[in-house]
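Batch manifest, entry 17 of 40.
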Amino acid sequence: MKQEEQKKIEQAFYVIGASLFGFALILYLLYKMFPIPLGKYLLPCMFQKFTGLYCPGCGGTRAAAALIQGKWLLSFFYHPIVPYTAVIYLWYMISHSIQYVCHDKIKIGMHYRDAYLWTALVLVAANFLIKNGVLLIYHQDILETLKQYW
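Output type: structure tokens
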């Protein structure tokens, strides 16, 4: 891929990332002003309902809530993809913000690598296998256990 094309793609990612941040901030402020118990309105996980096992995304909502509360470790235990994604997002946005503010004089902008996606896939698979392994072998519901201790 040409360097010019790569730069356009990175700029598009930056604009999307900034827009997502703005949208998330607006949602967060609305939630703080008008607290709604979202748990009452969420549908149950159909994968878990029919199989009795965790789906690959189980714990993601709780992980996001823990992350917003500043509980990084708890967020990691609920679902490691959430803090991983947050770190990658922050790293990308901060590095590109510095590069854009300095008018490309400091070239520290994070570049896309397939390894970031492979790492995410490994995290999701490991989370799925560990939680279901513990559930099947030890009959221990990890997500419910975490609720009791935090």
